[in-house]
Write a structure and sequence with these properties.
This protein has helices at 4-9, 12-31, 59-74, 86-92, 97-108, and strands spanning 36-37, 42-43, 46-47, 51-52, 80-84, 124-129, 132-135. With 168 residues, the chain is an alpha+beta fold. It is globular, with a radius of gyration of 16 Å.
């Protein structure tokens, strides 16, 4: 029998939250095209996404990002998975240094796309929806309308260090 964490990772709620994180990343990058994206997992009580942006987010930014997220959800964006080579992934994310670091870990077979240690070398997969593509193993909803747009609420912004490095 799967433990609670495994059950959650296989649940519809997990897929909804994970997909919503991708939609948030899409909305943030539309607002900040030079932004750098790191990881965006579903967690026990929601989701988050790590970004390196040109300036801190304001409450007004969160409001406009939420509004754009609702628009993306209502656009009926399909989530499509594709397995790619490390070279294809590097080309696709050539301007995203955190993604390139994750790809190197996947290529070496020692870290997954969330930076967690691995016991075997994984395949490299990407998910695309509505003009946004992310390095990701999934799972996701099939179409954005499986997410209730009225349930989207960005609660807060927090600072973070990339992999515990205070300089990043």
């Amino acid at each position: 029998m799967a433990d609670k964490k495994e059950q959650y990772a296989e649940s519809e709620l997990y897929r909804i939250r994970h997909s919503t994180a991708h939609i948030m990343a899409q909305a943030v990058l539309e607002k900040f095209p030079d932004g750098k994206v790191a990881i965006g997992p579903a967690i026990e009580d929601g989701f988050y996404y790590d970004f390196d942006l040109p300036r801190p987010l304001t409450p007004e930014d969160l409001e406009s990002i939420e509004k754009r997220m609702r628009g993306i959800i209502q656009s009926k964006a399909k989530f499509e998975r594709k397995v790619v080579s490390a070279e294809e992934a590097k080309e696709l994310f050539h301007d995203q240094p955190f993604k390139l670091e994750l790809i190197a870990g996947l290529e070496e077979g020692n870290l997954d796309e969330d930076g967690n240690p691995l016991t075997e070398k994984p395949e490299i997969s990407i998910y695309s929806q509505g003009g946004f593509t992310d390095l990701c193993r999934g799972p996701h909803v099939e179409i954005s309308t499986q997410i209730n747009p009225a349930a989207v609420k960005l609660m807060n912004v927090a600072g973070a260090y990339w992999r515990g490095d205070e300089k990043r």
